[in-house]
What we know:
Blueprint: H1 2-11, H2 14-49, H3 55-66, H4 79-118, E1 133-136, H5 140-152, E2 156-160, H6 163-171, E3 176-178, H7 184-189, E4 197-200, H8 204-217, E5 222-225, H9 232-238, E6 242-244, H10 246-258, E7 266-271, E8 274-280, H11 291-294, H12 296-300, E9 303-309, E10 312-314, E11 327-332, H13 334-345, E12 353-356, H14 360-371, E13 376-380, E14 393-394, H15 400-405, E15 413-416, H16 421-434, E16 439-444, H17 450-456, E17 460-463, H18 464-476, E18 489-494, H19 504-507, H20 509-513, E19 516-521, E20 529-530, E21 543-548, H21 550-559
Parallel strand pairs: 1-2, 1-4, 2-3, 4-5, 5-6, 12-13, 12-15, 13-14, 15-16, 16-17
Antiparallel strand pairs: 7-8, 8-11, 9-10, 9-11, 18-21, 19-20, 19-21
Amino acid sequence: xxTIASELAYxxxxxxxxxxxxxxxxxxxxxxxxxxxxxxxxxFMWHLEGREFSLIAGIYWSxxxxxxxxxxxxTFHSDPGYIFAAVVTxxxxxxxxxxxxFTLVSLFLAPWIEYRLSHRPEVELPPETSGHVxxxxxxxxxxxxxxxxxxxxxxxxxxxxxxxxxxxxxxSGVKVVVGSPTDPEVLQGVRxxxxxxxxxxxxxxxxxxxxxxARSLCETPIVALVSExxxxxxLHLAGANxxxxxxxILGNYLATRATTKGAMAHIIDSFGxxxxxxxxxxxxxxxxLSLSESLIRQHTGLAVIGLWERGNLTLPTADTxxxxxxxxxxxxxxxxxxxxxxxxxxxxxxxxxxxxxHGRVGCAAASFLDRKPxxxxxxxxxxxxxxxxxxxxxxDATVRHLLKxxxxxxARGLIVTTNDDNTNIFLTLASRHAQSHIRIVAxxxxxxxxxxxxxAGADFVVSSASVGGSxxxxxxxSKTSVFLTEGINIFRRSIPAVxxxxxxxxxxxxxxxxxxxxxxxxxxxxxxxxxxxPETVLKKDDALILIGSPxxxxxxxxxxxxxxxx
Length: 566
Ligand code: ADP
Ligand code: ZN
């Protein structure tokens, strides 16, 4: 069944669709020819031999003669008639028996064979392969990782047991090896012992098997994404070096962004001693102040390098207003961050949070709020069999009067956590419409729905694909950071050759690429200079740490291609 589906999928691809068009034109031409012969047949029969036939009889005669079947039930009895019949037979042989099969072969069979030969998935990697990342299990998270690996030019390969999935991935330019992920021979074929990292993103039980198999062969570090956080220990036992309970991380993250009690910073990246973190403005004493009035740099030493508002990153100036619903992106040291948290931790606020959806993410958010403690109400239409702690209100969260009856009008924050993006968009829009001041944080499963959630009125959106992708990339790049907020990329680059000797002001990096310089790592200096002055001259062995959207990072990479040493 799968084979038929894959062949069908092949036939729906661009080139074949075009070929089908040519075939249809040819069939129309043949039909026209048969029709013409039928009309001529009737004409000749009547004028040459005085016999009358219907058009259907004419079509029947033309087809039997053209296909050389010639039943002989209707025949001419005159020389011109014989000549006409001979012409029809010869043209039938040429157009139906020679050109048609030839067309079918050249338009369909040959491209299909060519496609199959050129797209035969690999069963192993070339023997010289090393330093690659091996990815087992493709979903929105690993697709996001693949995009990041491509931008960073880190070699990788996907291993899948599903040949059809392999072909589809290969079509999108991904290196694929088809084989069972738990077969030692397959693992040897993908040079697991030479790999830089192994990403296990199968089901928890398959991941355990994969870890055990890989461990029996080599010491390559393994990162496993775990579906149920409590299975983490088993994965460690099986040999995983790092286990990522993505749903729990997402739940915690959403909870930190929904409560207004004591804002907490989230480290999103780090470069040596320099950490980049984000923290909501609400819950801090800076809400409503301009950046210069906030005195953040004077009191803590931290630089505010970006403001993140409903999905848009802006680069602040001294006069920029710190709005309550924005997130600040900060650069500095861990100690400086702690001093900021001390300032914000003193803020206490009355809070009530509604959590819509009590799956793994909703349950983790609830546990986080429990620990703070912040009062919350969970709503779900069904029981969560893995949770013994929380008692939700049962019902459909899209039914507004159920939420009203449960007291949503008193809530300050709302966490939308179902794993269906459409439901989340619906719930966000309905809640924003009903309560313009409530703080809404929402989970997206696919990256492409993040924008819709912001458009529906969410204050903060985080997609599991992007969080998972950036956690994995940070581990692969040996960073200690947690993860990046959707849409903000912070990256390190050596000074491009064309900029050596230029000052930051004259480099025009921001104008050309939209990226902004967060810090400068000077050769021989232990600590990076956070937000260096515009007069600073860029030197050959220095490195820049930049901030920008993923698109701006791509523009930077195009403008200043990495040299192999970077
Ligand atoms: P995850 O475990 O990744 O968080 P789940 O699908 O297990 O994802 O959890 C989503 C939860 O949201 C489920 O428990 C489901 O019952 C709940 N849910 C989905 N839609 C609604 C809805 N309209 N109203 C209430 N609960 C919902
Ligand atoms: Zn729970």
